[in-house]
Amino acid sequence: MIYWLESVDSTNRCLFARRLPRWDALVAREQTEGRGRRGRSWESPVGGLYMSVVVENDSLLPLRAGLAARDALQPHCSERIGLKWPNDLLCVSGKLGGILCEIDGELAVAGIGLNLAGEPPIEGATTLEAAGGSLPPAADWQVRLEPLATAIIARLRELVRLPAPEFLAHYRVHEQLLGQPVAWEGGRGTALAVGTDGALEVRTADGTERLHAGEVSLA
Ligand code: BTN
Question: CA 20 to 30 Å from 173, out of 49, 63, 75, 200?
Answer without folding.
Answer: 49
